[in-house]
Amino acid sequence: MPSLVSSTMEILGIDVGGSGIKGAVVDTEKGELITERHRIPTPQPPKPGPMIETIEAIITHFDWHGPVGCGFPAAVKDQIIKTASNIDDSWIGLNASARIEKKTGCPIHLLNDVDAAGFAEVEFGAGQGCQGTIVMAAFGTGIGTAIFHNHQLVPNTEMGHLPMHGGPAEHYAANSIRENEGLNWEQWGLRVNEYLQLVEKLFWPDLIIIGGGVSTEFNKFKSFIDIEAKVVAAESRNHAGIIGAALAVHSLQKK
User: Is the preceding peptide bond at 45 cis, omega within 30 degrees of 0?
Assistant: First the structure.
């Protein structure tokens, strides 16, 4: 396996999403993109072969030969894909890092995509300087979550699968549900509030950070959220996953 050690603070971060695969080179000391973001639509169906080819195309676009951090829409344990909510089931059980490394020649570190976004927000965004328990909840195709306690990650929490109304919460309150059902901001905001109330009863967080593309629309539904924890929008917006994936690699280098 190629080494993740690099002499530079610049690392390529890739954010694999249900609709697009995005990447940029990140300054991990500042938590900032230092190149333009490059995006390629996620292949459909999202099977391993075509998706790995797309990740390779992102790496080739930047003529990159160093370590790569990759946020992935799944639970990832020991670099093995454990779940497949919004990707093809054929990913389950694969050592995705090894497959991508074999294809690209670059050392790869995979982690859950919202765990990656959470890293960016805790280190450089809305969670910077906040102690206690922080929950990141990203509303998109599904609902992805990350939990940090005193800046330590509890990986692969997958709270989008909490039961609500006879099914997983993400089938009730994801942003895709708002779009597919034509819900207005109040109707959807009340669903988000109901979901966050459940999260609060289970974990009693000090801060909840709303992520995903809908974070840019936070002002349209924040008035419908009524819970004890402070609720804010992610500051890194759609760059959080890219930045956090690179930060995850940087943190491994420092160990």
Answer: yes
d(CA 232, CA 209): 5
Q: At what angle do helices 240-254 and 113-124 cross, to 10 degrees?
A: 80
- Class of the CATH-defined domain 10-115+239-254: alpha beta
Which secondary structure element, helix H or strand E, spans residue 47, and what is its range?
A: none
Architecture in CATH of 129-234: 2-Layer Sandwich (3.30)
| Tokens read off for 175 | 């942003």
- The reply to whether 129-234 shares the fold of 10-115+239-254 is yes
CB atoms within 10 A of CB 255: 4
pLDDT, one tens digit for every residue, the chain (255 residues): 455 655 469 999 999 988 899 999 999 999 999 999 999 999 999 999 999 999 999 999 999 999 999 999 999 999 999 998 789 999 999 999 999 999 999 999 999 999 999 999 999 999 999 999 999 999 988 999 999 999 999 999 999 999 999 999 999 999 999 999 999 999 999 999 999 999 999 999 999 999 988 999 999 999 999 999 999 999 987 799 999 999 999 878 665
pTM (predicted TM-score): 0.91
